């Protein structure tokens, strides 16, 4: 089975763990390693790919600055360490990207930002705008406010959610292990690396182990969970050894790693989710001109909407009906019902005057819309 080439991907999420980024003995960032990694990312960026980084390391850096002891931290100490460490972490990434002519943008998220639809859409739009401006978002869980009840607890699954949210087609998990083995390699010298996983089965899940290091919260089990999320969202995933310099460049040159493949694409996976996984909360009726515009690939603008029904909030799923009452699609609406009633039929230039604040151009963005006949399988 031929493996994909990194040059084939248009939007790539790279997850960097604490054990790679932070020298645990000195409590400092491994700057030489980081700059070598950013060399790899700059090369992909220069070839036209969008680059997103999900970076651990804030707590590990902050605990060193604050002189906190090794081992598990109390919640308040962990939050304090994250507060101090996040400043250092963002500066390190910003400087490394800037030396290669790339602007970095910081995004701090919690579990709610990737799981609740309204906040999910806000985060997605921020990411999309940064990428459109050719910036490189650097994303981390907001450990300064996250608690056990509202956190991911590991950046493997967070990275997979980010990949899905950003419609990425590749997720790279850099780790302190080469990939997925058929047995624990530290215990079994005959363990064999699995180079490609066409589908995550019960057998593949059984290969997962526990956490591998003090600084890292995620082990192979969380990486398999991340693989489920990413591949369901239409992204391929790679687990690779990140300990050597230029780890992404090494993947491109065929270094040993494990590829998790998906039969889908981000667009098809998202459309399938919108079409079948969400219960519609309302109805949006459009005129014939808007129906023709949607059929040609446009977004739905308020000017083409003639009526709205239901009790929906921004980000909810709604049914789109044509002027004759027929259902022509479903989508995620960009307005609450109250605001939607005020802007329907209005030209986008007048929305700010009607609402008193700057509104969104689209009632439903094309990326959040599934029309009857759209390919989703």
From TrEMBL:
<comment type="pathway">
    <text>Amino-acid biosynthesis; L-proline biosynthesis; L-glutamate 5-semialdehyde from L-glutamate: step 1/2.</text>
</comment>
<dbReference type="InterPro" id="IPR015947">
    <property type="entry name" value="PUA-like_sf"/>
</dbReference>
<comment type="similarity">
    <text>Belongs to the glutamate 5-kinase family.</text>
</comment>
<dbReference type="InterPro" id="IPR036974">
    <property type="entry name" value="PUA_sf"/>
</dbReference>
<keyword id="KW-0067">ATP-binding</keyword>
<dbReference type="InterPro" id="IPR002478">
    <property type="entry name" value="PUA"/>
</dbReference>
<keyword id="KW-0028">Amino-acid biosynthesis</keyword>
<feature type="binding site">
    <location>
        <position position="15"/>
    </location>
    <ligand>
        <name>ATP</name>
    </ligand>
</feature>
<feature type="binding site">
    <location>
        <position position="155"/>
    </location>
    <ligand>
        <name>substrate</name>
    </ligand>
</feature>
<keyword id="KW-0547">Nucleotide-binding</keyword>
<feature type="binding site">
    <location>
        <position position="56"/>
    </location>
    <ligand>
        <name>substrate</name>
    </ligand>
</feature>
<dbReference type="InterPro" id="IPR036393">
    <property type="entry name" value="AceGlu_kinase-like_sf"/>
</dbReference>
<dbReference type="InterPro" id="IPR005715">
    <property type="entry name" value="Glu_5kinase/COase_Synthase"/>
</dbReference>
<feature type="domain" description="PUA">
    <location>
        <begin position="282"/>
        <end position="364"/>
    </location>
</feature>
<keyword id="KW-0418">Kinase</keyword>
<dbReference type="InterPro" id="IPR001057">
    <property type="entry name" value="Glu/AcGlu_kinase"/>
</dbReference>
<dbReference type="GO" id="GO:0005524">
    <property type="term" value="F:ATP binding"/>
</dbReference>
<keyword id="KW-0641">Proline biosynthesis</keyword>
<comment type="function">
    <text>Catalyzes the transfer of a phosphate group to glutamate to form L-glutamate 5-phosphate.</text>
</comment>
<feature type="binding site">
    <location>
        <position position="143"/>
    </location>
    <ligand>
        <name>substrate</name>
    </ligand>
</feature>
<dbReference type="GO" id="GO:0004349">
    <property type="term" value="F:glutamate 5-kinase activity"/>
</dbReference>
<dbReference type="InterPro" id="IPR041739">
    <property type="entry name" value="G5K_ProB"/>
</dbReference>
<dbReference type="GO" id="GO:0055129">
    <property type="term" value="P:L-proline biosynthetic process"/>
</dbReference>
<feature type="binding site">
    <location>
        <begin position="175"/>
        <end position="176"/>
    </location>
    <ligand>
        <name>ATP</name>
    </ligand>
</feature>
<keyword id="KW-0963">Cytoplasm</keyword>
<dbReference type="GO" id="GO:0005829">
    <property type="term" value="C:cytosol"/>
</dbReference>
<dbReference type="Pfam" id="PF00696">
    <property type="entry name" value="AA_kinase"/>
</dbReference>
<dbReference type="GO" id="GO:0003723">
    <property type="term" value="F:RNA binding"/>
</dbReference>
<dbReference type="InterPro" id="IPR011529">
    <property type="entry name" value="Glu_5kinase"/>
</dbReference>
<dbReference type="InterPro" id="IPR019797">
    <property type="entry name" value="Glutamate_5-kinase_CS"/>
</dbReference>
<dbReference type="InterPro" id="IPR001048">
    <property type="entry name" value="Asp/Glu/Uridylate_kinase"/>
</dbReference>
<dbReference type="Pfam" id="PF01472">
    <property type="entry name" value="PUA"/>
</dbReference>
<protein>
    <recommendedName>
        <fullName>Glutamate 5-kinase</fullName>
        <ecNumber>2.7.2.11</ecNumber>
    </recommendedName>
</protein>
<keyword id="KW-0808">Transferase</keyword>
């Amino acid at each position: 089975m031929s493996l994909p080439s990194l040059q084939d991907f248009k939007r790539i999420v790279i997850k960097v763990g604490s054990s790679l980024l932070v020298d645990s003995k000195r409590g400092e960032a491994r700057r030489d390693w980081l700059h070598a990694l950013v060399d790899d990312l700059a090369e992909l960026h220069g070839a036209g790919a969008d680059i997103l980084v999900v970076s651990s390391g804030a707590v590990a850096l902050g605990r060193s600055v604050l002189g906190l002891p090794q081992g598990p931290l109390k919640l308040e100490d962990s939050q304090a360490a994250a507060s101090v460490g996040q400043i250092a972490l963002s500066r390190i990434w910003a400087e490394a990207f800037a030396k290669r002519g790339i602007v970095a943008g910081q995004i701090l998220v919690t579990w709610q930002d990737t799981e609740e639809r309204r906040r999910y859409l806000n985060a997605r739009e921020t990411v999309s705008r940064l990428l459109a401006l050719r910036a490189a978002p650097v994303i981390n869980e907001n450990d300064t406010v996250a608690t056990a009840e509202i956190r991911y607890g590991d950046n493997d699954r967070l990275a997979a959610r980010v990949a899905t949210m950003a419609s990425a087609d590749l997720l790279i998990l850099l780790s302190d292990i080469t990939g997925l083995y058929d047995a624990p390699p530290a215990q079994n010298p005959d363990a064999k690396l699995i180079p490609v996983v066409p589908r995550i089965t019960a057998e593949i899940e059984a290969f997962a182990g526990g956490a591998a290091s003090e600084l890292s919260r995620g082990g192979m089990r969380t990486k398999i969970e991340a693989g489920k999320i990413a591949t369901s969202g239409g992204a391929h995933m790679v687990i690779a050894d990140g300990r050597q310099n230029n780890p992404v460049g090494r993947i491109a040159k065929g270094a040993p790693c494990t590829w998790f493949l998906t039969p889908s694409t981000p667009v098809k996976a998202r459309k399938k989710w919108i079409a079948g996984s969400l219960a519609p909360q309302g109805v949006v009726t459009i005129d014939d001109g808007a129906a023709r515009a949607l059929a040609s690939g446009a977004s739905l603008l308020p000017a083409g909407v003639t009526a709205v029904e239901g009790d929906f909030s921004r980000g909810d799923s709604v049914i789109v009906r044509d002027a004759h009452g027929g259902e022509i699609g479903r989508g995620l609406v960009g307005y609450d019902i109250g605001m939607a009633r005020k802007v329907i039929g209005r030209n986008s230039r007048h929305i700010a005057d009607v609402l008193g604040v700057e509104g969104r151009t689209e009632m439903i963005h094309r990326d959040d819309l599934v029309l009857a006949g759209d390919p989703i399988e």
